[in-house]
Design brief:
The complex is a heterodimer of chains A (about 350) and B (about 525).
Chain A: E1 2-6, H1 12-36, H2 41-53, H3 56-81, H4 89-104, H5 112-141, H6 145-165, H7 200-217, H8 219-229, H9 231-236, H10 241-268, H11 279-289, H12 294-318, H13 323-344, E2 345-349, H14 352-358
Antiparallel strand pairs in A: 1-2
Chain B: E1 10-21, E2 24-35, E3 39-43, H1 50-57, E4 65-71, E5 77-79, H2 85-90, E6 93-96, H3 108-113, H4 122-140, H5 155-168, E7 173-177, H6 185-200, E8 204-209, H7 212-218, E9 221-226, E10 229-235, H8 241-249, E11 266-275, E12 282-290, E13 294-298, H9 305-313, E14 320-325, E15 328-329, H10 335-340, E16 343-346, H11 350-354, H12 361-366, E17 376-377, E18 380-381, H13 383-397, H14 413-425, E19 431-435, H15 443-458, E20 462-467, H16 470-476, E21 479-484, E22 487-488, E23 492-493, H17 499-506, H18 512-515
Parallel strand pairs in B: 3-8, 3-9, 6-7, 7-8, 13-20, 13-21, 16-19, 19-20
Antiparallel strand pairs in B: 1-2, 1-4, 4-5, 9-10, 11-12, 11-14, 14-15, 17-18, 21-22, 21-23
Helix pairs in contact in B: 13-14, 14-15
Classes of the chains: A mainly alpha (about 350), B alpha/beta (about 525).
């Protein structure tokens, strides 16, 4: 017999150690398919590590990859704190990117000091608006936001494709479905010469700290935590539950929208329908791995980005498919969910006789 | 009873029972003997170890030390296999839990014979079972319609099914855990009459209670538990209320009494209010609450109290009718508006509605006023002010916790209620809604709640006290109204009412005309 006893106090060491252990277990489990593929496990992981941390270039790639993940991770974390299950990060990311392109490809001409904030705000606004409808449907009609936000992802991506084939198609794009390029004045500045890492990273780090302060130190953050932990008591205590959900929804959508801005205006310079390899969904893994802590999101995003970047480099070197990265990410989500159980409960093996004795 | 129970043989003996849960001593060296045909009340506060002791007896728990012995067929006491409810059943011990263990979607008959009918030829066994049950019902006076689904039976009827279930298994010892918690006073009287007739037929009965009145009325002997130890075991005839209360608490008890006080101006008026839906709705409810008055609302749970409380808490709109606070109509069904207009709300379910368990004691103390100027500046929390408030409330209300930063979930029910009291009453409300404010609390914590409510009354606030406990209602209320099936009787001064008439009204009899 296995018994689960709730722990009264969870030590900080355990809370931080659990996701780290989960990540290590995920890497360990992922070594099985590497071995099965006939590749040397240790060498594969060494190559992965080198691919992610081995050079300034590798590390800058990792940071560039982590940037959108920090933002989508924050989007999921802040929503999940209020038990608002926003699975629509991917769609909100594209909505943000679409708005950034709409503003930043020549519709407005202004100096960078003005245009960049405009592009950023437009993207955040568009992402936030994507959450308005699902949140209102949830609080007014009880529609499950998991379903509405998830399905909106496909609606948005189809809408983006429509725009790229139609009104927003680049006439100089040789027929490719892509937007006109962003104006130089609308692009987020690079952080390093000849590297892809850009100032979207600074934006993401500032947002992580801002969300942390917002949740911990503001009245609205207090209300979000109360609604997330016990909506009945929050409502009874006079906290505006509906307004709180709407606020969280808008914030979460806006953060995911910023991820779209950062990809378009920081990296690509134009919009295509394959802008994101699922950053919106991976953001959910990032948030869970971080235990929904905004600062933890930064570290979780770096870890996941490291896996992706490292796996790419490893697969080039020894021919193990880079799908391995998806496998590690998925496994680490499962591991972190399981580790949550170990954090909250003490697990004891008991014999039937002993069970009776202290039941 | 003609023969004194002292002459009857002992059918059950618990000796030296000790049970620890971690550092907590739930039972410590408890001895208890039970004789044929006697009714023993096991009295004690919440957490005194009554239920633990009975769970050891029934085999749900194993005692760390001590033995349970049962009289066998020859009348000799033999130790019972510990930790086996099956062994307890075979030894003739039947238990009626506080929360019934019936399968709601089966009929009463199916519930009773469940586990006793063989797989082969269930039809024949069923016919035999019916004949036996008819005889049992006739002898015990426990009448139940056997072919109705349990979910459609009233709570009192479900309890009868539970008792029949035990008797059907030839129980010679019947254990009832807080049997009257869910019954009206009349149903309780019926229950105790049944228990007396069962005892007269030779069954030994133990019932757990913390209500002094029913212990005095229904038992032959009282065993008092305090902090896990048996502190008294004496014939009921030698006890009175004061003595039992002192034994139970361990020190002299001064009952809360309200000072006579003329009520002031009208404060809160409900006029023809209809709200809610289904069984718990309220229909055409009207009353006026005055300054410095406690208005008690009696009723069996599920007759509209929850809806009335939700309405006054600002969680539910009135479909029809009007609310006035000092002659100003109250339209908003918004909890925040209610708080700002000076209505303090003590919710019935303090764990669900009263506190956010995952947040700290300090956060729960300020949650109703978090937007006020006291605890925030430009939307940023003022942690120093919040911590200061927590220290003040913890000291003033004697909230037992490691500090303001402790997570509220880890506190006991009494201390969680103190958080709610501190939060609501320190704001200086004009109206206090107290819904079942002492439910589940021990005498000490209950006394705290009563003192705070009386203090609010003395200050001139109007208090609406919704309760199922008639002792509490009569001790505190200036006037009492009874709610039954959503209708509220006209409030009457509590001096003009007695327990019997209120009890009848709780059961739906209109006694206003007779009593007037």
């Amino acid at each position: 017999m296995i018994r689960f006893e709730p722990r009264e106090n969870v030590s900080p060491a355990r809370r931080i150690g659990a996701p780290v252990a989960a990540a290590l277990v995920a890497l360990l489990l992922a070594s099985l398919p590497i071995a099965a593929a006939g590749a040397p496990v240790l060498e594969a992981y060494l190559l992965m590590a080198r691919g992610a941390f081995g050079s300034v270039f590798a590390f800058s790639e990792l940071l560039a990859r982590a940037t959108p993940l920090i933002l989508t991770g924050l989007a999921a974390a802040v929503a999940f704190r209020a038990r608002l299950w926003n699975i629509g990060g991917e769609g909100q990311l594209y909505a943000g990117a679409l708005a950034a392109v709409a503003v930043g490809t020549g519709a407005i001409s202004a100096p960078p000091a003005l245009l960049i904030p405009l592009v950023v705000l437009a993207g955040a606004f568009a992402g936030g608006m994507m959450m308005l409808l699902p949140t209102l449907l949830k609080v007014r009609l009880g529609a499950d936001e998991v379903v509405t936000t998830l399905l909106l992802n496909f609606v948005v991506i189809l809408a983006v494709q429509m725009m790229l084939e139609g009104p927003m198609k680049d006439p100089m794009g040789m027929g490719w479905p892509q937007s006109e390029p962003m104006l130089d004045e609308a692009m987020l500045p690079k952080l390093l010469e000849r590297m892809r890492v850009h100032s979207g990273l600074i934006l993401a780090l500032v947002m992580a700290i801002a969300v942390h302060v917002f949740l911990k130190r503001t009245v609205w953050g207090f209300e979000i935590r109360a609604v997330g932990e016990n909506p009945e008591a929050a409502r009874h205590a006079g906290i505006p539950v509906t307004a709180t959900f709407v606020r969280v929804g808008l914030l979460s959508g806006a953060l995911a929208g910023l991820a779209g801005v950062s990809e378009v205006a920081g990296l690509k310079g134009y919009l295509t329908a394959d802008l994101s390899p699922g950053f919106g969904y991976t953001g959910i893994v990032v948030a869970m791995l971080a235990g929904l802590s905004p600062l933890g999101v930064v570290f979780a995003a770096l870890f996941i980005a490291g896996i992706f970047v490292g796996a790419d480099s490893m697969s080039r070197a020894i021919g193990v498919s880079n799908y391995l990265a998806d496998l590690v990410v998925a496994t680490s989500l499962i591991c972190v969910l399981v580790s949550g159980l170990f954090v909250r409960f003490r697990i004891r093996l008991v014999t039937p006789k002993a069970r009776k004795a202290d039941a | 009873m003609t023969t004194g129970p002292g002459e009857q043989p002992v059918v059950l003996a618990l000796s030296g029972i000790t049970k620890r849960f971690g550092a907590l001593m739930a039972n410590e060296g408890v001895d208890l003997e039970l004789r044929r045909g006697e009714i023993v009340a096991l009295l004690g506060e919440n957490g005194a170890g009554k239920t633990t002791l009975m769970n050891i007896l029934f085999g749900h728990y194993v005692a760390d030390e001590g033995t349970v012995s049962v009289a066998g067929a020859d009348g000799r006491l033999q130790p019972m296999e510990p930790g086996s409810p099956g062994a307890a059943l075979r030894s003739g011990i039947g238990m009626v839990h506080q929360h019934f263990t019936l399968a709601e979607n089966l009929t009463a008959f199916e519930n009773i014979v469940l586990g006793t009918v063989p797989l082969i030829r269930p039809g024949l066994a069923g016919r035999n079972a019916r004949a036996r049950l008819a005889e049992l019902m006739r002898r015990s006076g426990l009448e139940v319609d056997l072919d109705i689904r349990v979910s459609r039976l009233s709570v009192g009827e479900q309890q009868r099914v539970e008792i029949l279930k035990a008797l059907y298994r030839d129980a010679r010892v019947l254990v009832l855990d807080e049997p009257t918690a869910v019954l009206t006073p009349q149903e309780s009287d019926t229950l105790f009459a049944t228990l007396k007739s069962l005892a007269a037929q030779g069954i030994a009965i133990v019932f757990i209670s913390h209500k002094l009145a029913e212990v005095l009325a229904a038992s032959d002997r009282v065993a008092v538990l305090r902090l896990g130890r048996k502190v008294a075991d004496l014939p009921t005839a030698e006890c009175d209320r004061q003595k039992l209360a002192e034994l139970m608490v361990g020190h002299a008890v001064t009952p809360s009494r309200r000072e006579p006080k003329a009520p002031g101006a009208a404060l809160l008026t409900l006029d023809g209010v209809t709200a809610g839906e289904g069984r718990d709705s309220i229909r055409d409810v009207g009353f006026t609450l005055h300054e410095g008055e406690i208005l008690g609302i009696a009723g069996v749970s599920g007759n509209g109290q929850a809806t009335l409380a939700r309405l006054l808490s600002g969680l539910l709109p009135a479909e029809r009718g009007n609310l006035f606070l000092r002659d100003k109509p109250v339209h908003a069904h918004d909890a925040g508006d209610m708080i700002r207009s000076g209505i303090a709300r003590i919710p019935e379910d303090r764990h669900r509605d009263g506190v956010v368990g995952a947040m700290t004691v300090a956060e729960n103390l300020v949650i109703e006023e978090i937007r006020g100027r006291r605890y925030q500046r430009f939307g940023f929390l003022d942690f120093a002010a919040i911590a200061a408030r927590a220290r003040e409330a913890i000291a003033a209300y004697d909230i037992r916790c490691p500090g303001g930063g402790a997570v509220a979930r880890l506190l006991s029910g009494g201390n969680i209620q103190k958080i709610v009291l501190a939060r609501t009453l320190d704001a200086g409300p004009v109206v206090v809604l107290a819904a079942q404010p002492s439910r589940g609390l021990d005498i000490g914590a209950t006394g705290d709640v009563h003192r705070r409510l009386l203090a609010a009354r003395a200050r001139g606030a109007g208090v609406i006290l919704i309760s199922e406990d008639l002792d509490e209602l009569f001790a505190l209320s200036d006037r009492i109204a009874v709610i039954h099936r959503g209708h509220l009787s006209a409030p009457r001064p509590s001096e003009e009412l007695d327990r019997a008439s209120v009890g009848l009204m709780m059961a739906g009899h209109h006694t206003e005309s007779e009593a007037a």
